[in-house]
Amino acid sequence: MSKTSEIHKISYYISIINLVFILVGCNKNEISSDFEETITNITGTNSYTIEKFEDESEVVVNIKDINTSLLDSSDFKQTALIILYDLHLELEDKEYNNFIIHFETKSDIYKLDYNLEKLIFSRATLAYNKEDYNKAINILSHGVKTFPSNPQFYTQRGYIYAINTDNYDSALFDFRKALEFESSKADNLRLMAMTFIRSGNLDSAYKYLKKSNKLNPNDAATNQELGLYFYKTSNIDSSKYHLEKSLDIDPKNNDLYLVLGNIELERGELNSAKNYTEKYINKTNDLYTGSYILGRILIELNDMESACKQLNISRNQGNIESDSLYQVYCN
Predict the structure, then answer these.
(1) Residue 59 near residue 100 (C-beta atoms within 8 A)
(2) Distance, CA of 268 to CA of 300 (rounded, Å)
(3) What are phi and psi of 104, to 5 degrees?
(4) Is the distance from CB of 168 to CB of 161 less than 8 angstroms?
(5) Cβ contact 276:306 at 8 Å
(6) Is residue 1 exposed (0-12), middle (13-18) or buried (19+ Cβ within 10 Å)?
(7) What are phi and psi of 118, to 5 degrees?
(8) Does some domain include residue 246?
(9) Alpha carbon separation from 120 to 52, 154, 160, 315 (Å, rounded)
(10) How far is CA 217 from CA 20, 157, 213, 312, in A?
């Protein structure tokens, strides 16, 4: 989403006496020094007001004297999320549901607003994108507690448990909870299957994959998981079928070109393996892995000159396996 669609620019000048610290309708002792420090550190100003409108369940933060370079940077929305979520924690017992922030320059106000569900989820997403997985889990847990009937918080927390922390029992618990609210949703069935695959329970994985695929046979992610399942169970032809179907549905999933290249190499379909791997390299410029796999394929094709060229490219990226093959075939 573009910055202009996220920021509603109000083009009028507001004349406000520029006080160092004002809390409108909010007792100062409700706001901790940590929160005050958060605003100062990430905005570069300690000039702000907080207005509470209890009848409308709304809180408005006005940040004055904002550095205009912040508004021009990608950190603008992140700054707003951090401030508003921390403010929600400060005032949690007051049950405010709408959080608005104004960044004031000399002539304009820039506005972002969130309802509480969106605020919590967006703040968790920000933590996840920064690879702070424990913080993301904690924020989503807060979402579960605050909105226990919203399955989105369970699903996203379960995903982090499964993919980023290998906590499969907690992941399965969350996906099952999500299914209580969306019993026919293919995504949660697929995510349960994905978790079972990663934990080594392939029989249970296939059970849920069949259910997910029945509900949504043209889902790229479900076909990818089916492809991985069949690969792990040595059904290479079925694995190829579902991975190719996934790639047809979502051609931007570049990693599948490499997976299919490896599968075709195992099947002895060397020209097809070469084509998939070359597509992977062209789309990702991953010379470390891509050139190594392509070098292996070219060795099988007995094109030693091209194989050594690819292995040399890969070993120059630090690939030890490529260097070992290069020493065997190219010296």
Answers:
(1) yes
(2) 9
(3) -100, 130
(4) yes
(5) no
(6) exposed
(7) -65, -40
(8) no
(9) 19, 13, 16, 45
(10) 59, 25, 5, 42
Within 10 Å of residue 262's Cβ, how many Cβ atoms? 16
Q: Which of 95, 117, 139 is the last residue of a domain?
A: 117
One-character DSSP codes across 104-134 = E-SS-EEEEEEEHHHHHHHHHHHHHHTT-HH
In a domain, 320, yes or no: yes
Q: Count how many residues are written for the chain.
A: 331
- Looking at the DSSP bridge assignments, the partners of residue 61 are 50, 101
For 260, the domain range is 254-331
Same domain, 102 and 7: yes
Asked if residue 297 and residue 202 are part of one domain, the reply reads: no
pLDDT in tens, the chain (331 residues): 433 333 333 222 222 222 223 334 444 445 666 777 777 776 766 777 788 887 778 888 887 766 666 666 556 678 788 888 888 887 776 778 888 887 776 667 777 888 999 999 999 999 999 999 999 999 999 999 999 999 999 999 999 999 999 999 999 999 999 999 876 688 899 999 999 999 999 999 999 999 999 999 999 999 999 999 999 999 999 999 999 999 999 999 999 999 999 999 989 999 999 999 999 999 999 999 999 999 999 999 999 999 999 999 999 999 999 999 999 999 8
Tally of structural domains, the chain = 3
CA pseudo-torsion sign 272, 274, 280, 282: negative
Q: Are 35 and 87 in contact (CB under 8 A)?
A: yes
CA gap 317, 301 in Å, rounded: 24
Last residue of a domain, one of 224, 244, 265: 224
The CATH code of the domain that includes 306 is: 1.25.40.10
Q: Could you tell me the two tokens for 288?
A: 């470390």
Residue 280 included in any domain:
yes
Contact 141, 129 (CB under 8 A): no
